[in-house]
Amino acid sequence: MSSAKPVNQRAWWFVLPVLISVAFSALVPLMTIVNYSVQDILGPDQAVFVGMEWYQEILRDPDLHGALYRQLVFTAAVLALEIPLGIALALTIPARGWRASLVLVLLAMPLLIPWNVVGTIWQIFARGDIGLLGYVLTRLGVDYNYSQHPMDAWVTVLVMDVWHWTPLVALLSYAALRAIPEPFYQAARIDGASRWAVFRHIELPKMRGVLTIALLLRLMDSFMIYTEPFVLTGGGPGTATTFLSQYLTQKAVGQFDLGPAAAFSLVYFLIILLLCFVLYNFMKDSR
Amino acid sequence: MARIDLEDVGHRYAGAADAWALRPMTMTWSDGGAYALLGPSGCGKTTLLNIISGLIAPSRGRVSFDGRDVTALAPEARNIAQVFQFPVVYDTMTVFDNLAFPLRNRGWSGARLRQRVEEVADILELRPDLPRRARALSADQKQKISLGRGLVRPDVAAVLFDEPLTVIDPHLKWLLRRKLKQIHQQLKLSLLYVTHDQTEALTFADQVVVMSQGEIVQVGTPEALFETPAHRFVGHFIGSPGMNFLACDWTAGAATIGGVRVETSSKQAPPAGAKLSIGVRPEYLELAPTPGANCVPVRVAAIQDQGIHTMVRLEVGASFAWAKLRTTSAAPTPGSAFARLPPARCALYADERRVA
Asked: pLDDT of B19-43, one tens digit each?
């Protein structure tokens, strides 16, 4: 700027409350974790500095590799199912009228249910003896048992997540679709565009911003999934549904290995951060 | 290019079945004509336009292009180009792909497609922008793309504009308007231009169609609309300020204002019982210090010097009128005076309509 404006440095005081709350909610806990991750804590007053040792141990741990692999496959499957399904749902919701309201309310219901209740619902729903789904499948001759077959457990967790969270993607997409002005559709009709062309060249580009948000939310959430598989299968059978956060909990709370657990928390955090960063920039740049 | 005939076309929107958005009307738009549809918001202009382009199926009546009934045809089958108020471009495509889109939807490809798109780009001066992303362009260029997507079809029947200059910067408006007019002359296209801006309508069109409350109240050249408004609404709407309407009586076969006999250009007698007024443009009112023929006593209430013109607010009995006078050294003064209504320049209006 060419003309010098008077700068009021006292304005910085307004930032102070935010800085303080961020410090206590994020920075201090984070630094505690960093602190733990480089020490071997033997007792309340006994700690030994171990440097990168925990990190090396963690990164070589085959259990972690297994959990990470399952996690990546799970998250990829969640995104690959929920995003297209959510868009497809949004496209079929009526634009206005009482039917639209009804559909929206029904659609939003899974979002209102607490995580652990979702797990409990599906735990009963999928039981072979009394659950509607499990009973029907068994009677149809399908050898389905989520507490014994790893694949069944895995698919059940996936279907549960799709049931729980696809409405979020659908509601976001629906909002974006309603925001497209009518002349875009009118122009497309005059241009003789097919239904697919309308979706590809009008609706999808206009939904892009919202879909970026949906994708990031589902990526982060599914990457941190804990409660539902914990309630449903407890991570089993075996390690079939042990995802990263379960692995972390086992380390930190179960075995009380605070050092490795702290080191792993940071690695976990960095993985999510990296994924989000890459995804966000990909969605932004390809506009 | 085509002649467009509307026969008894009317429309009511669903949910408002008792109200005509467009009252049944019959109208012919000649081939190659430049028409402006002028009227306030909600008068049915856009409804009329959308009926012609096929975006709305009229509740009744028949639309035909060159005698061919198109009432049941979808928009893409009518070969209409329509430009909307807000620029509609396909964001993810280049300018070239935008212009090529309607042709590709018809199965065009290769050199034929490229050649046609480049021809249209040349007409619109978009040639250098062809490889650019459409979203990166300014609003006026986007409007040109919208227009271009209509023009690329070689058999385009008519070009419809729905207030296309609303979001264009003022200094670009007249450039774009001139470009549109130039394209009209070059391609001899039939052109319908919806606007609520009278300057836009009057400078753009050969024929101006003035609409009010779902009804066409007058069709005419800009000059005819100014000189002989067929309807009080036209008199009000066209001109700045609009026409003065002075309440009058009908006594002994002549119009009188406050007992003063006033000659008008109307030759016929008005229907009995109608509410009468005399319409005269502010531009044609003259002030005189002394009484004379066709002069009514007035009181000069306010004077505004607007540079080349002086606006004078006159009280005429219970009503008031504006006079737009050329600024001279002899400025009017507040107080009593006489306003002369030139007989050839004023007309009698019965209720809303001009008496012939």
From this structure: 888 888 888 888 888 898 888 888 8
Q: B208 and B306 share a domain?
A: no
- % chain B with pLDDT above 90: 4
Residue numbers of A between 205 and 264 with CB closer than 8 Å to B: 205-206
Mutate to test the interface with B, among A180, A191, A200, A208 (most CBs of B within 10 A): A191
CB atoms within 10 A of CB A22: 12
**Number of domains observed in the structure of chain A:** 1
Q: Which of B76, B92, B105 sits opposite A205 (nearest CB)?
A: B92
Q: Would A112 be classed as within a structural domain?
A: yes
- Look at residues B300, B259, B299, B266 and name the one whose alpha carbon lies nearest to residue B280: B266
Q: Confirm whether B15 is domain-assigned.
A: yes
**Nearest alpha-carbon partner for B276 in B214, B206, B347:** B347
Q: Are residues B76 and B204 in the same domain?
A: yes
Query: Chain B interface, mutation test: which of A184, A185, A190, most B Cβ atoms within 10 Å?
Result: A190
Host H or E run for residue B286: strand B286-288
Same domain, B164 and B272: no
Q: What is residue B168's predicted lDDT score, i.e. its pLDDT?
A: 81
- Kindly state whether residues B263 and B123 are assigned to the same domain: no
- Taking the C-alpha atoms of residue A215 and residue A169, their distance in angstroms, rounded to an integer, is 8
pTM: 0.78
Q: In A, which residues are within 8 Å of B106 by CB distance?
A: 192
At B60, give phi and psi (nearest 5°). -150, 165
Which band of pLDDT confidence, cut at 50, 70 and 90, is reported for residue B1?
Answer: low
pLDDT of A173-217, one tens digit each? 999 999 999 889 999 988 888 899 999 999 999 998 899 889 989
CATH code of the domain covering residue A65: 1.10.3720.10
| The predicted structure's pLDDT at residue A12 | 85
Contact B74 A191 (CB under 8 A): no
pLDDT category at B291 given cuts 50, 70, 90 is: confident
Between residues B139 and A87, the one the model is more confident about: A87
Q: Which domain holds residue A101?
A: 61-285
B19: in domain: yes
Contact B207, B51 (CB under 8 A): no
Residue B235 lies in a domain: no
Is there a single domain that holds both residue B177 and residue B285? no
